[in-house]
Specification:
The protein is of the alpha+beta class and 318 residues long. It folds into 2 domains: 2-142, Beta-Lactamase, CATH 3.30.450; 157-316, Alpha-Beta Plaits. The chain is built from 11 helices and 12 strands. The protein has a 5-stranded antiparallel beta sheet with strand order 2-1-5-4-3. The chain has a 5-stranded mixed beta sheet with strand order 7-8-6-11-12, with helices on both faces. Strands 9-10 form a two-stranded antiparallel sheet. Strand 9 and strand 10 (272-274) form a beta hairpin. Helix 8 (198-205) packs across helix 9 (207-223). It is elongated. This is diguanylate cyclase. InterPro entries: Diguanylate_Cyclase (IPR050469), GGDEF_dom (IPR000160), Nucleotide_cyclase (IPR029787), PAS-like_dom_sf (IPR035965), PAS_4 (IPR013656), Rev_trsase/Diguanyl_cyclase (IPR043128). It holds the Pfam family PAS_4.
Length: 318
């Protein structure tokens, strides 16, 4: 009766091993397969009969043999399990995923545990690889990360122009000012740009046209800037450009180049073609600026001076 019971339990155990939704592979110390369950058969297309007594690296030549062999040898030597997360390596076995949500990968994401199998005499010459399908977890985490990145971008970006928003500008200006005060950087120049007579654009052509002008202006400022320059919308029709490692002389050259490009550009809108000009105020950060507010104020005063002098020009702060 006991022998029959043992045989029944062994049959149950074997049936569970074959049908459990986890991959089970047993290999010897020559990396040859001795057990290959139904999960592995279904996802690899290799039957247990074909897999048995073959090297794991022969069945899957795409596996990085040096990397995995080092893991396997470590488990054999230390007799302690090793865990391989999908975040370290997306998969060990290149199985296609049959789930509909795997937009980020066509292959199954896997967690793998490599465990030593103890013999009755205490020796270890076999290993068990347990393969978990974690595609749902990986895809959900990737989707959440994408959402978080988008939210982070939205928190730093002006919704209309896609430039940096005021908060991002303030942070960049503060970091630049602090580094300069500590003697770690410089020279730096700050430019404030204002669209001339923008209120009349809104009044005569409507706010949608005004928004279109702001969007095209943002593209012109971005395309005309160098890599490393910080371009943002300061508020309303005003833009701010932080020119790092730029003297006021070079900043004025930059400002005049942008001013001429805007003056010569034809802004095409649904209400017709428009000609727009801009005024610019520029200030180079120097020892006379005791605070961020003084630096920004000096650029702002230069802008007002450009307006008072007739607009469509650049004024550099004294």
């Amino acid at each position: 009766m006991t022998q029959q019971t043992d045989m029944t339990e062994l049959h149950w155990l074997f049936d569970m091993l074959q049908h459990i939704d986890v991959g089970l592979v047993v290999i010897n110390n020559n990396y040859e397969v001795e057990l290959w369950n139904g999960f592995m058969e279904n996802h690899s297309g290799v039957s247990s009969t074909s897999a048995r007594q073959r090297s794991l690296f022969d069945i899957f030549p795409s596996i990085n043999q040096n990397w995995l062999q080092q893991k396997l040898d470590t488990v054999l030597a230390l007799r302690t399990p090793i865990y391989i997360s999908w975040e370290q390596r997306p998969y060990l076995f290149p199985f296609k995923s049959y789930r509909a949500i795997t937009s980020i990968s066509e292959l199954m994401f896997q967690n793998v545990v490599i465990r030593p199998i103890n013999n009755a005499n205490g020796t270890v010459n076999h290993l068990c690889l347990v393969v978990y399908d974690v595609t749902d977890v990986a895809v959900n985490k990737a989707a959440l990360s994408a959402v978080n990145r988008k939210l982070d971008q939205l928190s730093k970006t002006d919704g209309l122009t896609d430039l940096h928003n005021r908060a991002s500008l303030d942070r960049a200006i503060k970091l630049t000012f602090d580094a300069y005060i500590k003697g770690n950087s410089g020279p730096h120049s700050l430019v404030i740009v204002d669209i001339d007579h923008f209120k009349s654009v809104n009044d005569n052509y409507g706010h949608q046209t005004g928004d279109a002008v702001l969007q095209e202006m943002a593209k012109m400022l971005s395309s005309g800037s160098r890599r490393g320059d910080f371009v943002g919308r300061y508020g309303g029709e005003e833009f701010c450009i932080l020119l790092l490692n730029t003297t006021q002389e070079n900043a004025k050259i930059y400002c005049e180049k942008i001013r001429r490009q805007v003056e010569e550009n034809v802004f095409k809108t649904s209400k017709g073609d428009l000609n727009i000009t801009i005024s610019l105020g520029c200030s180079e950060l120097n020892q006379a600026h005791d605070s961020i507010e003084q630096w920004v104020e000096s650029a702002d005063q230069a802008l007002y001076s450009a307006k008072d002098k007739g607009r469509n020009q650049t004024v550099v702060a004294d």
